[in-house]
Every structure is written in C-alpha cells, then in structure tokens.
Amino acid sequence: MQTHQALDDISGGLHSLRLDPPDCLPFNPSGERDWLRATFNDVPRYLFRVFTPKSRGRTDQTWTRSMDATNGIPNARLDIFARDNEGEVADMLNRHLRWWKGDEDNLVSWTSSLLFALVYIFHLHANTTHGSELKDISLCVVDTTFFPTGVFLRDLDLIRAFRASDEFLDDFGDLQLKNRGGIEDKCKLVSAQAMIDRGLYDLQPRFKEFAAWPKAWRPPWANPVLELRKEFNRELGDACEVSLKEQLAAMNIADLFGGRWALPLAANAFALRPRRCWNERILATFRSCRFTGSFSS
C-alpha cells in the first residue's frame, strides 16, 4: 500500500511538473571551435541595444528575443554550434551582419559603443521603412556580468569561426551577438526622447542635426559615427572642456537610468566627446552624492 501511494505521489508530481524555457541560450562551441571559449571573457561589461516596436526581434524589460525566438521557430532553441549545416549558420550570420532579411535569424545585436547606439537612434528615426518617433525608440543597457558565461560573443570571433563556410563574411564593426535571453533585473530601458529632454544635445550638439535628417530609404549611420570619432584623434591638449550644461546633462541622463546604471551611463555620456582624464567637472560628477553607492562590481 505504501509503495502504491509513493508511486501515485511521484506520478502526481510529474503531472504537475512544468518545464519552462531557459532564461538564456548560451553559445556552446566545441571541437575545432572550442578556442572560442577563451573569448567569452573579452565581452565588455556594459552593452547597448537600440530597438523599437517595429524591430524584427523583441526587447522589453523582461526579455530580448531574436526574430526566430519571437516567431516561435523550433531552431530558436538550438545553439548555432549544435546545428548540422554550417553553411546555413554562416549564411544567417552574414545576412544578420548586413541587415539583410531572410527566413531565419536567431541572433540579436548589441554594441559596446554608446555613440554607435545613439547615432542608430537617429538612423531609425529618418528611415522611411522604419520611421519611428523618438519617443518610441528605446536604448537598453545590460550588465553582462549578470548573465551566464557564453550568452554573449563578439561578432569578430563568430566571423572567424564561420568564415570558411561563407566567403562573404568579413569585418562588420562593433557588434556583440546573442540569440535570446531573460534580461529582467539585468537591464534598464530609456526612450530616446527622454534622453533628449534631459540634455543629450548638450553632450553632442551634432545629434540635433542628425535628428533633422530627411527621410530616406538608407539614412546615414556608420559614416557619421566615423566622423565623430575623428575628434578622438586630436592631441590631448585639444580635448573638449566640460561645460556646466554638459555636466548637468550627463547627470540628468544618468538619473534616468538610476541605481547601478547611473555611474557607467554618466561615464559613457561624457565619453561621447574626447575629454581630459582629470577634468574637474567630471570628477565632481562622480563624487556627487547622486552617484555614491550606485555602482556595484
């Protein structure tokens, strides 16, 4: 009788067991690509993603999902290194990096460059296909140390891994790739309009010009980023001073993100233009009580 009762209890427990999908789908290279594991630690701590409701994948306060994961395609739960057809994986990677549409895309792009992400906001705003209002375009920041190892992988490392399977794979810039993952409590989302209202144009005046770009099928993006980065080739003595307006803008934008995000966002905001390392206004900002205790390792 006790044995039957125990079996009934086990059966009941199995019926009530619910297997949820994992929070993340890490990259799991093996065999001849096992060398990629050594690159997991090369991913920067803070990554940025710009998205809108019209983006092909889905990002919100809880999840970021690839196009395939959003559409419920079975392969979305399969690590790309576990797939049999390497040519198809290389083709998907090539299309993703070139922003070409296709039947499958199980990757999500991130960037370690706030400048790159912010210029993309204005690219989306001016895009005739996308054409989103600034209030509908959001910037997401994640702390990669909150995720399991292997969730993020640098694009150049993936390109090296699959270059032999696709002759068109090449250097595509500063993107970090993943497919899907739970980001609740590991991220912060803020709208582009909110950052503008808090003084984004004071930190980089060229952004106001970018916001007025005429609508186009392929608005500028990479070239303006390269142009702005030329400022960093100046001599150290030509580094930009920090005005009071810039200091307040950096602090106010950082406050939008708040908590543990405030300090790294303030640092990235100041870094939109070349600065002197020991600028007193920057140091005063970081010493401010508004940032005390807001950063955790």
Automatic annotation (TrEMBL):
Note the Pfam families from the entry. Answer: DUF7587 (PF24494)
Outline the extent of the DUF7587 domain: 43-166
Instruction: Tell me the InterPro entries matching this sequence.
Output: DUF7587 (IPR056009)
What this protein is called in its record is DUF7587 domain-containing protein
Instruction: Name its species.
Output: Parathielavia hyrcaniae
